[in-house]
């Protein structure tokens, strides 16, 4: 089959080269965007009198027919046509004849693929934002269900201070909100039309790129034709944002993997979201969580692959950039899948609040509350810190809790300690003492839950389409 670019060649492309250079095996998923961009381009050409209205209508009708064929699964993609652009163009020529050859006027595959990727990415961003919002909603539901329950908060993976269970879930809502806003911001730089930059220098034909930009709902058009076809910053940024999402998901999974172990026993994941061992019949493994944690490395790898592809490329377009698509496609697919399955896993997990609260009795989680109590009595914090440290050292060996210490023994550490100390010690008393904004006090957590419910409802209602 004759190549669209074959005019200056005297030999047929080697079959090995065709197999090595083709991208249709993975870029065929861009068909919707390639056709959408081609229809807009045809309309622009007609408005600029570069093709006639009847030619434009024939092209659009042919493209829509091809779209229906692809959607129905009857369209045959051909490796010898290399990529999605040439597969659709050659099919269009077969359908409507030579008029189809006018479609590539004032266009190159260089600006065409940049356009397709941007259109595809806009949709991906919206889908991922919706998946993030759904996961946030599940975390909010868990925070509401947790209500008055308390769990041990950790630093250095050691018992540190008691926190409301709802406060714990809200921490992940905050992380995901940063992810959401990063995607909203990323979309601003994605939503720039490159069409009209052609191969790299623009065109001598009198075209109006602003027409295609408006038809395709872009915010603006490119400012420099060289940059327009050589830019993949939007891919790097998208992959980077998704890598951070993957970090957050992986951290959560690590936590719940530990919490599901017999040593913690804080939760029980539903059997339908676990697997077993081929040799140990008693095992129930948190494989879904482990795979999400593992896929974080895969997402990182795709980001580093993209960075490495781009770091040595001179201006403008180079064929190396064909390698961007598999990495960016895989990253987007992976993150969407992880967000979806994690939401369902969380929904089907039983939290063992009684075990969490029993664990709060270990490690003197109310010790900082006593230090703060002494500060209120006028003792400098560094001194109160040392006093309470001495208490912990004395009672850590005999299993005695601070709330079980008599007032007489307390006064041996400081004469300023009085009976009102018992209003502070014990995790349930201590957690009520928090007053700072954004803290784990029950009142603060309930207020935050209500605020997040309102905020997420706004996200869901607007569906992020206008990114307001």
What does this structure look like?
The protein has about 475 residues and is mainly alpha-helical. It folds into 3 domains: about 5-105, Fumarase C, Chain B, domain 1 (Orthogonal Bundle), CATH 1.10.275.10; about 110-145 and about 165-205 and about 215-360, Fumarase C, Chain A, domain 2, CATH 1.20.200; about 365-425, Orthogonal Bundle (Ribonucleotide Reductase Protein R1, domain 1), CATH 1.10.40. Helix content is about 60%, strand content about 5%. It has 18 helices and 6 strands. The chain has helices spanning about 15-20, 25, 30-45, 55-70, 85-95, 110-145, 165-190, 210-215, 225-230, 235-260, 285-310, 325-345, 355-360, 365-375, 380-395, 405-415, 425-430, 440-460, and strands at about 150-155, 160-165, 190-195, 220, 265-270, 350. It has a two-stranded antiparallel ribbon with strand order 1-2. β1 and β2 form a beta hairpin. It starts with 14 loop residues before the first helix and ends in a 6-residue tail after the last helix. The mean pLDDT is about 95.
Q: Tags for this entry?
A:
468 residues; Fumarase C, Chain B, domain 1; elongated; Fumarase C, Chain A, domain 2; mainly alpha; 3 domains; two-stranded antiparallel sheet
CATH class of the largest domain: Mainly Alpha
**How much of the residues is beta strand, in percent?**
under 5%
- Categorize the overall geometry: elongated
The fourth-level CATH homologous superfamily of the largest domain is: Fumarase/aspartase (Central domain)
Count of individual domains = 3
Share of helix, binned: 55-70%
Rg, Å, rounded = 30 Å
- The succession of helices and strands, N to C, reads HHHHHHEEHEHEHHEHHEHHHHHH
User: What is the overall pLDDT average?
Assistant: 94
Number of helices: 18
Spatial gap, N to C terminus: 49 Å
Number of β-strand runs: 6
Look at the helices and sheets and give the structural class: mainly alpha
């Amino acid at each position: 089959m004759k190549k669209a670019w074959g005019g200056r060649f005297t030999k047929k492309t080697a079959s090995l080269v065709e197999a090595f250079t083709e991208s249709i095996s993975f870029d065929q998923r861009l068909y919707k965007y390639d056709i959408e961009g081609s229809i807009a381009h045809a309309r622009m050409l007609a408005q600029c009198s570069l093709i006639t209205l009847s030619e434009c209508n024939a092209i659009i009708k042919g493209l829509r027919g091809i779209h229906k064929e692809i959607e129905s699964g009857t369209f045959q993609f051909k490796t010898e046509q290399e990529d999605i652009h040439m597969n659709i163009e050659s099919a269009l020529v077969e359908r409507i004849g030579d008029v189809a050859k006018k479609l590539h006027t004032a266009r190159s595959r260089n600006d065409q693929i940049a356009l397709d990727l941007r259109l595809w990415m806009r949709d991906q961003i919206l889908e991922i934002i919706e998946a993030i919002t759904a996961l946030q909603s599940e975390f909010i539901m868990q925070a509401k269900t947790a209500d008055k329950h308390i769990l041990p908060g950790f630093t250095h993976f050691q018992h540190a201070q008691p926190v409301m269970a709802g406060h714990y879930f809200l921490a992940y809502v905050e992380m995901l909100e940063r992810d959401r806003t990063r995607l909203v911001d990323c979309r601003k730089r994605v939503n720039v039309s490159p069409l009209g930059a052609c191969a790299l220098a623009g065109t001598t034909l009198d075209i109006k790129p602003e027409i295609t930009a408006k038809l395709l709902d872009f915010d603006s058009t490119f400012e420099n034709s060289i940059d327009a076809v050589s830019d993949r910053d939007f891919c790097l940024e998208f992959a980077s944002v998704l890598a951070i999402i993957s970090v957050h998901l992986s951290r959560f999974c690590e936590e719940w993997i530990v919490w599901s172990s017999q040593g913690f026993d804080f939760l029980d994941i539903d059997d339908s979201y676990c697997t077993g061992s081929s040799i140990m019949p008693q095992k129930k493994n948190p494989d879904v969580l482990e795979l999400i944690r593992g896929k974080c490395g895969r997402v990182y790898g795709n980001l580093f692959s993209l960075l490495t592809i781009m770091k040595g490329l001179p201006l403008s377009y180079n064929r190396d950039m064909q390698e961007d698509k598999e990495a960016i496609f895989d990253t987007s697919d992976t993150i969407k899948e992880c967000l979806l399955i994690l939401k369902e896993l969380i929904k089907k997990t039983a939290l063992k609040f009684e075990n969490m609260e029993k664990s709060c009795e270990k490690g003197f989680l109310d010790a900082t509350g006593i230090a703060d109590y002494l500060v209120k009595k006028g003792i400098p914090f560094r001194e109160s810190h040392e006093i309470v440290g001495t208490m912990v050292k004395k009672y850590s060996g005999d299993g005695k809790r601070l709330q079980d210490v008599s007032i007489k023994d307390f006064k041996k550490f400081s004469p300023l300690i009085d009976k009102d100390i018992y209003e502070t010690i014990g995790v349930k008393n201590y957690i009520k003492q928090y007053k700072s904004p954004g803290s784990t006090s029950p009142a603060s957590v309930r207020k935050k839950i209500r605020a997040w419910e309102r905020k997420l409802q706004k996200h869901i209602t607007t569906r992020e389409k206008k990114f307001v």
